[in-house]
Amino acid sequence: MDLYIQIIVVACLTGMTSLLAHRSAAVFHDGIRPDPAATD
């Protein structure tokens, strides 16, 4: 059960990190050069 919880925690952290990176990258690119096709 411990391993299961550990896997879930790691998965959540990875997901949040990638989500934050994606959002900050989108904002960064939006500020530099607005591109309607880049937004999802």
Structural summary, described in words:
InterPro entries: Uncharacterised_YhfT. This is Inner membrane protein. The protein is mostly helical and 40 residues long. Helix content is 78%, strand content 0%. The protein is built from one helix and no strands. The longest helix has 31 residues, at 2-32. The termini are far apart. The model has no long low-confidence stretch (mean pLDDT 80).
- Rg, Cα atoms, Å: 15 Å
Determine the mean pLDDT.
Answer: 80
Structural class by SSE content: mainly alpha
List the secondary-structure elements in sequence, H or E. Answer: H
- Low-pLDDT parts are none
- Give a count of the beta strands, DSSP E runs of length 2 or more: 0
End-to-end span in angstroms? Answer: 37 Å
Specify the helix fraction band.
over 70%
- What general outline do the C-alpha atoms trace? rod-shaped
Oligomer: single chain
Largest sheet: none
- % residues in beta strands: under 5%
Concise synopsis of the structure shown:
With 40 residues, the chain is mainly alpha-helical. Helix content is 78%, strand content 0%.
What are the main properties of this structure?
Inner membrane protein; 40 residues; mainly alpha; Uncharacterised_YhfT
Show the helix and strand layout:
Layout: H1 2-32
